[in-house]
Automatic annotation (TrEMBL):
Signal sequence residues: none
Name of the protein in question: Tryptophan--tRNA ligase
GO biological process: tryptophanyl-tRNA aminoacylation
Subunit-structure text: Homodimer.
Entry EC no(s): 6.1.1.2
Xref: NCBIfam families: trpS
Keyword Signal: no
Motif 'KMSKS' region in this chain: 199-203
Organism: Rhodophyticola porphyridii
Enzyme's top EC category: ligase
Keyword terms of this UniProt record: Aminoacyl-tRNA synthetase, ATP-binding, Cytoplasm, Ligase, Nucleotide-binding, Protein biosynthesis
Reaction catalysed by this enzyme: tRNA(Trp) + L-tryptophan + ATP = L-tryptophyl-tRNA(Trp) + AMP + diphosphate + H(+)
GO molecular function: ATP binding; tryptophan-tRNA ligase activity
Function: Catalyzes the attachment of tryptophan to tRNA(Trp).
């Protein structure tokens, strides 16, 4: 009964990196190009102010940079609906309804809330607690059926399903779909290049090894040459990567960039030492990533064009979101 539709979003928090590309953007592009779903991709600026308020110019710049990153990575604003959350007001309007559907107990159990609010929950913003209800609204205002996310978002997706189910039950309707998380691929967790037991993340300012999407070819190659490895050669099969997190990470990154299975990487490189393998990986990474960073820079030179694309995206989005909000209000008696 629901149109197969994908929704996913990312915060405009700056400093896009290889983990964001392989774990999110590239998979979004693959779903767009597979053509089995309508695809809606969103910069979630309303979410970006839940932890701390950002400097206004920084937020504006980050939003444009994220949009440039998406387009450079292959999101086509004609094929996909590409939007900035605050420009489609129905997200926030439905979020209010969901604030009244979700229970305080549900919100307080979210591990991301507990991690981010820490021991001083009294000082956290109300928005940080309500974050997952807004995320549910982002998804359900499109009646999206499938949501590609990382492992870390699984619990929020469960909450989205609970909110939809409670709304449907309490009003005796089958209005909101029960969404399916799509968590797959070898790069759902790209690890830190100096410590393969931690994930690559922008929230680690001391990490100089992180490959950023704006890095040029020389920088990418240098960071890969310096990546931590062990003295053993590459094994012949993936079982041989057990207990070798740094080695496994580099093999997985190679596989994701080259769009092959990790075993196929080992078939080509079994017995090679890491000095040699890292040179091959640097070639693959530069070939894939430097055209993206160049295209991002080109797009960032014309912010008015980015704003025009987002304006057009919002118009297309509202063809879907305005009727769904109207029907929601109607069900509620508004
Ligand atoms: P960060 O952890 O750098 O702050 P975000 O939490 O903003 O990144 O994540 C944005 C998107 O990128 C999410 O879909 C998330 O799952 C994905 N992502 C972030 N870091 C990684 C990583 N190291 N490996 C794979 N995907 C990642
Ligand atoms: Na994060």
């Amino acid at each position: 009964k629901f149109t197969p539709r994908v929704f996913s979003g990312m915060q405009p928090s700056g400093d896009l990196h290889l983990g964001n590309y392989l774990g999110a953007m590239k998979r979004w592009v693959d779903m767009q190009d597979a053509g089995q779903h309508e695809t809606v991709y969103c910069m979630v600026d309303l979410h970006a102010i839940t932890a701390t308020l950002l400097d206004p110019d920084t937020l504006r710049q980050n939003t444009r940079e994220l949009c440039a990153g998406f387009i450079a990575a292959g999101i086509d604003p004609e094929k996909s609906i590409l939007i900035n959350q605050s420009q489609v007001p129905e997200h926030a309007q439905l979020a209010w309804i969901f604030n009244c559907i979700a229970r305080m107990g549900w919100m307080g159990r979210m591990t991301q809330w507990k991690d981010k609010a820490g021991k001083n929950a009294e000082a956290a913003s109300l928005g940080l607690l309500a974050y997952p209800a807004l995320m549910a609204a982002d998804i359900l205002i499109y009646h999206a059926t499938h949501v590609p996310v990382g492992e870390d978002q699984k619990q929020h997706l469960e909450l989205t399903r609970d909110i939809a189910a409670k709304f449907n039950h309490d009003y005796g309707v089958e209005f909101f779909p029960i969404v399916e998380p799509v968590i797959e691929g070898v790069a759902t967790r790209v690890m830190n290049l100096q410590d393969g037991t931690k994930k690559m993340s922008k929230s680690d300012p001391s990490d100089k090894s992180r490959i950023n999407m704006t890095d040029d070819a020389d920088t990418i190659a240098r960071k890969i040459r310096k990546a931590k490895t062990d003295p053993d050669p590459l094994p012949g099969d993936v079982d041989g990567l057990a207990g070798r997190p740094d080695a496994r990470n580099l093999v997985n990154i190679y596989a994701a960039l080259a769009e092959i299975e990790p075993q196929a990487v080992l078939d080509q490189h079994a017995g090679a030492l890491f000095g040699h393998f890292k040179a091959a990986l640097a070639d693959v990474a530069v070939a894939k990533l430097s055209p993206i960073s160049e295209e991002m820079a080109r797009l960032m030179d014309d912010p008015a064009e980015i704003d025009r694309i987002l304006g057009r995206g919002a118009e297309r989005a509202r063809e879907i979101t305005v009727p769904i909000l109207e029907q929601t209000y109607d069900i509620i008696g508004m």
